[in-house]
Amino acid sequence: MIEARVVTPDRWPDLAELFERPGPRGGTPFTAGCWCQFWHVRGKACDEGWGSLHRARLEMQVHEGTAPALLAYADGVPVGWCRLGPRASFERLERSPKLARVDDVDVWSLVCFSVHVSFRGQGVATALLRRALDHACSEGVRVLEAYPVREGHHVIDSFTGYLPMFLGAGFTVVRDAGRRVIVRRRLRTSDALEVRVLEPGRILQPVAERAVDADVGEPDQRELRRNSDVAEHAGQAERDR
Question: Which pTM value belongs to this model?
Answer without folding.
Answer: 0.76
